Amino acid sequence: MEILKGIAASPGIAIGEIFLLNAKKIKTVKRKIDKNSIKGEQERFKSAVSRIEKQLKRLIDELPKEIKEHSSILQSHILMLRDKMVYDRTLELIEDETINAEWALDKAMSQIKALFATVKDAYIRERLEDISFVINKVKAALTGAETRLDLSSLKRPAIVVANNLSPADTLHMRKENCLGFVTELGSRTSHTAILAKSLGIPAVVGVENITSSCLSGETLILDALKGKVIVEPDEETLKTYEAKQKNYIKYRLEVISNSNLPAETKDGYRIKVKANMELVEEIPIIIQHGAEGVGLFRTEFLYITSKALPTEEELFKTYKEVVERLRPYPVTIRTLDIGGDKLASGICHENEMNPALGLRAIRLCLREQGLFRAQLRAILRASAYGDLRLLFPMVSGKTELVEVKALLRDIMDELEREGHGFNKDIKIGIMIEVPSAVLVADILAREVDFFSIGTNDLIQYSLAIDRINEAVSHLYEPLHPGVLKMIKLAVDAGHKAGIEVGMCGEMAGEPIYIPILLGIGLDELSMNAMAIPKIKKVIRLSQQEDCFQFVSELLSLDSAKLVREKALTFFRDNYPQDMETIDFMEVGLSI
Ligand code: PEP
Ligand code: MG
Questions:
Q1: pLDDT for 345
Q2: CA angle (294, 296, 298) in 5-degree steps
Q3: I want to staple 323 with a disulfide (CB 3.0 to 4.6 A). Which of 357, 386, 434, 439 is the partner?
Q4: Highest mean pLDDT among 43-57, 97-111, 351-365, 537-551
């Protein structure tokens, strides 16, 4: 029996036979060519690209109706095939260095890798995997090798083990006998992981050396709750996991069947529970999991995946689709939060010493007004089609907000002159994620209709912990007394001014923090859709009166360590479930 650790990318437990995908590396034959062969070699490359393009298009056409919405990933692969860095560069290299197409492709890939190595943002770095997938396809077409995931030999249900899987491979799995998958590469935010979640396939990624640690036909336990895989388990472990799996299925069925129950405490406090979203593809899962709307639509995605800035029309089309598909629920669109560690093509980013404190979000938008205006126009135009709300990120004080509101009024006048329909009374909110905004929350609350607390950044800025720096990640503590006081200050200031205060940082989706957030008096929690049923369940098991009392005790404690200990004890004592359910909830007991 061998136990290997990885990252739980899509929750669930699977037990079954291993289907090892030997994604054979395609050997690159490197060949110098003479000048007369350049044109021919370029044509060979062009025709390989066209063949792959056709194959991907066919795949899109063949997608079953229920997963049609995922076709945008395949569309993006088609675009990547013609990307300058891939397509034009390979043609250039064939000519300039008189080398064969496979070698030129390899060189183009190395250059792209070097460029991506300088990017810190994990999400952007993962796009490298998409490019590498596309390049491999072309290489295979050039050499005649087959890279298409061949699951046709998967006659019995099995767990797929591979070095890496592309989003397209994951899309195939829906139809096949796939119980789950394990990969050596990948991370929680990769497209493959996002898709696995929305298709409900349990997955653990980032398991080093898994392909050399097992054989097809062996038994595997995939614990995608804990990010663990067990190869050839012993009898006892197998029995334990069979029971665990049964209980997990029971637990999921119960929470999902109850996902439309109200998020109301035992003593009648009704809190709104909404979803965070980034991709249009997530809408079905958002609805199925009982969200009462979208509390945070992160709009960076469209900018990061596009080769150039998306146009107002493209943005409008997407926002309109989102709001229409989620009607009658409200959708809160956050304006572009780009800059810092999230970069996009088409935007001129400075080389900054402290990107997290630099030209990011609203600061960048106020400087690049053309970009900002296009997005605001698109959002306002989409507001004619449903309950759309506007959320501005990284606001640090009133001056910024006044400037944003003036711009918004100007755009409204412009749209009116042009005869466009839009909601003139659109609700306007700000993210509370900069400490100065907390301290002047009373002033800001008079200017807006709602607050949404972004704890991911609020913790980063109030504790001075770079949220992407692993060296200080152990100090990133949501239960630091300073953080709790900040949250309470913002909520109290909002309520005093008569506006609603929500939270959309990761803290809102973790069961252990729920009694605290109820006790502070938040009006809304927004989180990843998968977390909604379990959070609603914790809310239904809560008594807000007890939470008030508990929070007043917590606020008198003087260290994060004491707060965490108390929070764990409170959770164990007041949510009388067996430890297994607590495990299923991924409470975060070991944080
Ligand atoms: C936050 O900062 O808590 C937040 C929700 O925004 P993001 O994670 O996109 O910065
Ligand atoms: Mg933020």
A1: 58
A2: 120
A3: 386
A4: 537-551
pLDDT in tens, 419-458: 999 999 999 999 999 999 999 999 999 999 999 999 989 9
User: Residue 551 carries which side chain, given as an amino acid letter?
Assistant: V
Q: Is 97 strand, coil or helix? A: coil
Ligand 1 pocket check for 391: Cβ under 6 Å: no
CA distances from residue 25 to 143, 180, 468 in whole angstroms, order as listed: 12, 23, 32
Structure tokens at 442: 């009373």
The whole-angstrom separation of Cα 567 and Cα 418 is: 55
Average pLDDT, the chain: 87
For ligand 1, atom 9, the nearest C-alpha belongs to 298
Whether residue 420 lies in the annotated active site? no
Atom of ligand 1 nearest to the CA of 504: 5
CATH topology of domain 36-143: Enzyme I; Chain A, domain 2 (1.10.274)
Testing ligand 1's pocket by substitution, the residue of 278, 451, 456 carrying the most ligand atoms inside 8 A of its CB is 456
Which protein residue's CA is at the shortest distance from atom 6 of ligand 1?
454
Sort residue 361 into left (φ over 0), alpha (ψ -120 to 50) or beta: left
> Ligand 1 pocket, 454 CB below 6 A?
yes
All CATH 3.50.30.10 domain ranges in the chain, comma separated: 2-23+149-255
> CA torsion sign, 139 to 143 to 148 to 151?
negative
User: Of 3.50.30.10, 2.60.40.10, 3.30.390.10, 3.20.20.150, which CATH number belongs to 2-23+149-255?
Assistant: 3.50.30.10
Q: What's the DSSP call for residue 87? A: I
The pocket of ion ligand 2, defined by CB under 5 A, consists of 433, 454, 457
How far apart, in whole angstroms, are the C-alpha atoms of residue 125 and residue 384? 36
* Ligand 1 nearest-atom number relative to CA 298: 9
To the query of whether residue 504 is one of the catalytic residues in this protein, the response is yes
Tokens coding 328:
């009658």
Active-site annotation holder among 172, 191, 289, 480: 191
What's the average model confidence in pLDDT over 360-389? Answer: 96
Q: Which atom of ligand 1 is nearest to the CA of 452?
A: 5
Compute the distance between CA of residue 356 and CA of residue 457 in angstroms, rounded to an integer: 9
> Which residue's C-alpha comes closest to atom 4 of ligand 1?
454
Q: Which residues of 48-68 are buried (b: 16+ CB within 10 A; e: fewer)?
A: bbeebbeebeebbeebeeebe
Domain with CATH 1.10.274.10 in the chain: 36-143
Question: Do you know the residue count of the chain?
Answer: 591
Q: 364 and 338 in contact (C-beta within 8 Å)?
A: yes
Q: Whose CA is nearest to atom 3 of ligand 1?
A: 454
Compute CA 325 distance to the chain's CA centroid, rounded to the nearest angstrom. Answer: 20
Average pLDDT for 545-561 = 96
49 Rama sector, left if φ>0, alpha if ψ -120 to 50, beta otherwise? alpha
- How wide is the angle at C-alpha 10 spanned by C-alphas 432 and 247, nearest 5°? 110
**Alpha carbon of 435 to ligand 2 centroid (Å):** 12
Give the closest residue (by CA) to ligand 1 atom 8.
456
Contact 75, 314 (CB under 8 A): no
